[in-house]
Every structure is written in structure tokens, then in C-alpha cells.
Amino acid sequence: MRVDPETTRTLRHADPEVQEVLDIWMARFLGSQIPLGDITSTLDRIRTWPEWGQEWMATAAVHEELAETAWVQGRRLSAVPAFLTAARCYHMAYFLTVHDEDLHRRGLAKMVECHDRVLEHQEPSVVKITVPFPDGDLVGLLSVPRTETPPPVVILLPGLDSTKETRHGGRGSLMKRGMAVLSLDGPGQGEVSLRLPIRHDYEVVIAAAIDELERRADVDATRVGLVGASLGGYYACRAAAFEPRVKAAVANCGPYEWGEIYDELPGVTRGAFRHYSWSKSEEEARERAALLDLTGVAERITVPLVVVHGMLDPLIPVDHARRIAAEATDATLIEIEDGTHGGGNLSYTFEPWVEDWMAQHLGGRVA
Fold this sequence. Notes:
With about 375 residues, the protein is an alpha/beta fold. It has helices at about 15-30, 35-45, 50-70, 75-95, 100-115, 165-170, 170-175, 205-215, 230-240, 260, 265-275, 280-290, 320-325, 350-360, and strands at about 125-130, 140-145, 155, 180-185, 225-230, 245-250, 305-310, 330-335.
């Protein structure tokens, strides 16, 4: 940890691993609509880190039961948000619980199940698509606004431990600006992590996604932008450097050189990377981490790029963002003075501007 935990102003917990997770991700939990009451009551039941997953599974089950009851009674307006809350809580249970493979798989399956259960009832509307890919299809969530002509597309890229479900919740503000939104599970992400590990050459993933978009008549695949957060910020940069069909990109708190900071990352993060990269040992994970490197890559980014970074990010130093912005041809750097990882605690200071910027570059609307 590079930041005194007191500066994060989060909840306090006696277990150091639980506290580490809160210090890094509390803003993300709240931003993804995890009820504060669920956070505090679940934390009250957790004594040590190994109990994190099982207690969040229990919290999620409460919401799923409420959702199921409302569904059976025909109360769809109550059932839909309850299923979505259950999905978010199941994600909380499994996303860093890689020390318990059975719980991890159950939590992931339940997250997908609860989210898929109400796909056709969500607003704005959502469809689940598959993207043909070697050794196993990718999966995405697509939402298309009502426009007179096919709209441009923003592809949202999860990071190390987020998923298409967690990212797609932010689609509404992009759709209001006249852009379709595709949230993608690539290799090592969400349900695709069960059949494909993390790969550093993410341009092949984006190429496959754009190929699929080109087969659709309801979107304009000649106008595609990328928004990646955390490790997804690296993926956005890598794809923008090598996939010529990308027109603009945003990298939020992405690393320049993942291997450079790997040994300084929190234990739960290193464990997650070992898991999602399918590494059999710490040494192998370190070798795989070294492949995620923008040396000689960032300088090849010629499309407009926005690089966002929180100055209090406890995972990735701000100098990584500065290096990316300095080497890319047309980059705008946004440093959030009191921002944590992803700037989630101060998202209102930059997200609207970034969304307007993307709309301007893809031909959406800002008024």
C-alpha cells in the first residue's frame, strides 16, 4: 500500500486483509450500488478474510429470495432490481475469493444467473451476445439507444476482477449521448475466465468484438471507442495501439507496466491475478504479469486518448498514467487530486466530461 489507509476514510475492520480490500475498493462498492447497510452488516459477520466470500454469499441469498418471492407474485418492478442487487452481492462474494475454488465458481455462476434472469426486463434494455473467438467464445452485454441511424459504440472493458455485469450498469449516461454500449468479458474476465486466461495482446479481443459488431445492422461499427478501467485501462491502450478500427480510447487508472509493480500489489490482488491468468505458481504469475507492458506500445497510440488517474490510487502509481500520456500522440491527462483507484470517490469530477469527449469523437451528442 502506498497510501496511509487513514486517507481513504473508509470503514474500519480488525482483519488487515479485509481492511486492505475496503481501502482499495470501498468507493467502487458504493458506486456499483451495493447498499451501505449490506456492507456494514456483512462486515459485522466477518471475522477474518477467509469468511468474506461465504458471508457475502449469505447476503446475496437474502436479495435473491426477495427477488424470487416478488417474481412469483408477479411484482416485476420489485423483482428486477432485487435480482440485480443479488447479482452485485454475489459478485462481491466471489471476485477476490480465489482461495476457495468451489465458492468462487458458485458465486460467479449465481451472479450470472441472477443478472441473466432479468435481462429482457432491464432499462435501458440489454441483450446478451456472443463473440466468436478461438478456444471459446467471448460474451458481452449490448444496449442500443433509439436513434434515427445506427449509433456509434463504446466498448466497456473490465479490469482484473470486474465483469461485463458490473460495468454495464453505467451504460445509461453513454446511451443518453447517442452511443450504444457493449460491455465485454474477455479472456480472464467474468464467465469467460472459466475457459480462457488473461492475455496481454488484447487487440485480438477487440478485433473479434468489432468483427461481431460489423455483422450487426443496429450499430455503426466504423465508430468504436474504448473505455477501460484498472487493468482494463491497459487493455484499452494496447487495443488502441494495434487495432486500427478503434477511433478513441479512455484509460482509467491503468498500468503502464504491470510487472513493474506486481510484487508491491496487495496479496488479494496478486492472488486474483494468479487465478485469472491461470498461473500455477507465483513465479509463473510474475512472468505473465511482465507481458502486460506498454513499453514501445504507448507510442503507437495515435487516436485521441484520455488518461485518468487518482492521485491516491493505492494500487497503481500516478506516474504510470503520466508515462502513457507522455508517449501517446494525442493524449489528455486528468489527475484527480483526492481520487482513489479509478477515481470512484470523485467520479462526478471527470466522468461527465469524459462521456462528452467520447460523444464528440464518435459523433454522439452532448446537448
